[in-house]
Structure formats: structure tokens, C-alpha cells
Write the C-alpha cells for this entry.
Amino acid sequence: METRSFLTLFVISLLLPPAVAQPAEIKAPRGFTSLFNGKDLSNWYGWSTKNPETLRKMTAQEQKAYKAKSREDINKHWSIDGDVIVNDGHGLYLTTEREFTNYELLIDYKTVPKADSGIYLKGSPQVQIWDYTDPGKFSIGGNKGSGGLWNNSKGAKGKDPLVLADNKLGEWNSFRIRQIGARTSVWLNKKLVVDHATLENYFDRKRPLFHHGPIQLQTHGGEISWRNIFVREIGVAEANKILRQKSGGGFSSVFNGKNLKGWAGAIDNYEIVDGSIRCKKGKGGNLFTKQQYGDFAVRLEIKLPPAGNNGLAIRYPGKGNPAYAGMCELQVLDTGYPGKLAPYQYHGSAYGMVPAAKGFLRAAGEWNYQVVTVKGSTIKVELNGSIILNTDLSKVTNANTVKQHPGKDLARGHFGFAGHNDPVMFRNIEIKKLD
């Protein structure tokens, strides 16, 4: 009787349709969202080692057509096995539809002997992944392990990982990647392998890394599997806190948050609001430190109202217009400022002399974190984690420009603000002497 029942059930099971695989249930850590929906790759498309600006220049219709075509390639080379995404080592790179600015990425991978892969951040290569035991890769750093920013210039910080942290081939590895502006930190299997290094713009090293962009999973000849792909966007306050923490020590506050003790100039035209220095609306003039500086670094936070205008006075002699009488005025200007601007008028530019890269200033009403480093005739401006100006004013030799800026070669002067009638705010102002 028992045998007959078993045979009956067996026959019935043969007649039933095969079981359909159920989508994997993806549970993200608190604060994170999954970039894999557990069932398909509909929120990804295919791209390669091409400038993401190429895609942005397409019309919406052209983008849609390209992405649809790229997914044909994705379907050939990428597959899903439960909660794991597998690539056969070929085809276009899996690229997120979403684009990110400041974020934390968690992702696991497992690969095979002689494999070579990576993770593109904001569409630029790359956090390196490879077989660290393959002698064929030793000459280009393979024996140092995965996790480095391999496409950075030779000798650049972050190109090689700080430690070898790879697990044995065939085992899962876990990345934690933090991206703030162009500043990249990487942990591989809980070990820090890249510490707040600047990821270079592979497509144009004279420009900063893109303000925002997709995350890409590279294919490079060997099978690789991915799982637990989670992202958390980092807000302004957290980003600024991390950038300050990682900008080094030796800074001293030059503003006590209560009054303008230690400052001189147009004191009556500025006010203290919520622990910040604010230029009074309809007022202006130059407010500057009583102390003078030669080589120095200053870090501070800046908040602009819509169309707000101000400036940072660098090596200001204490009288005259900082843009001309001082070494320079670094523009503080909202992107919504009306009218047509010259390239050297945008935020972070050495006014009238050298333009800064555009597109890295936050929206009006948000705090920006900025570090300015002045050494000799050089000035570097890092805004929200991206270097937007890195110049040597001694190379500004145009006769008319030099005549208009007689103070550009000053070796010493005050630091301050050049108000232009708008309630621009500054806080957490700290300076480090470098000479």
C-alpha cells in the first residue's frame, strides 16, 4: 500500500510543471538600499571604458535606444543565480541607472584564477580587482592585492593598496567603498587599503573626477560573481564632517563663533548669526584677520544665498581691493548669479587670472566645505572633496593681467572676506601655518 502511494505521487510529480525559481529576497543593512532587485537587471544597462559624458550628450531618445541595445549584450554575458549576479568575463560593464555624488557602497565579489576586474566610481576607473597570485600581473602591481585605485597616475596616493587584504581565490571578498567628491576610501575584508585618496579623472586628468556618475562592474576576461550590492547616500553634514576629519591636524581656529575678536576692517558690515560670520545684506567691504600669513592652509564652511557673491582675500595687504592689491581674491559665487560670467568669475577661481573647475558647488542654502592651500606662488582649492583649482600664479604672465593685479606676487598678508552686499555665511574657520 505504501509502495503504491509512493509510485502514485511520483507519477503525479512528473506530470506537474517544473517549479519556477523565486526571486531572491534581498535585505539591505539599515540605511542602505539594494542596487539589485533580486529578480532581474532592469535597473542596469551596459557601458564600457568610455567617458560617461558621451552618454549625457545624447538626446533622451538616443539614450533610451542605446540602453535598450546594450541590454541585449548584458543578457548574453550576465546571469542571475539566486542572490548572485554572475558575469562570464565578457561583454559590456554592468552600469547603474542611478547616479551618485557622495555615497558608501558595500559589495561582495568572488572571482577565478587570472581574472582581472574592477569597480568604476562615478563612471571612472577604478577600484582594482585581480588574482594577486598571478605572476603575469606582478609587474603592474598584482602581487600587492586588490582594492587600489589602479588607474591613478604612477606614484599617486591610492594607486596601490596599503595592505594585501584579498581572501583566497574561490572565496568571497567584501568591499566597503566611501566616495565623497573625488575622495575615495576603500576597505577590503575590513582592512583599509585606500585612505581618502583623490580618484583621478581617467578621461581628462586635468579635470576633477565627475561631480556625479554611475557605479559600474567591470568585465575583463574571467568569470566574476557579485552579491550584497548596497548603497547609502551621504548627506551634506556627514560629508563635511568626514572631509574636515580627514584634512589633517595643526589647524587653529581664527573665529570664536561669538564675536569678531582678532578681525579688522569692515567689522560693522558683518554680523554673527548661529555661530557664523555673515555679511549684512546690502553691505560689503573687506573683513580680515589681524594676523598675517605667508604659506598657510585655511579650511572653512561657506553657505551662499541665491545669487550670493563674496570672496576669500588671500595675502591681503589691509587696504585696497583684494582681487588686485592682494595675492588674489578667490571667488565665492552662487551658480545662480545672473548674467554672463567670464571663466575666471566662477566659484573658486583666482578672480581675473585663473578659472576654477565648475559644477562642484552645492545648491544655495547648503553648507560647502572648502580647503585652500597657499604655498609660495601656488594656490590649491578643494571644494567638497574635489580639487577645483591648482595653479601657480607666477605663470600668469600676460602683461595686462599682471598690470591689473600688482599684488599677485605678495609673499605675506591677511586672510579675509570680500563682501559684495549679499548675506553670505562662513563658519568653522581654521588656519594652519605652513612656513
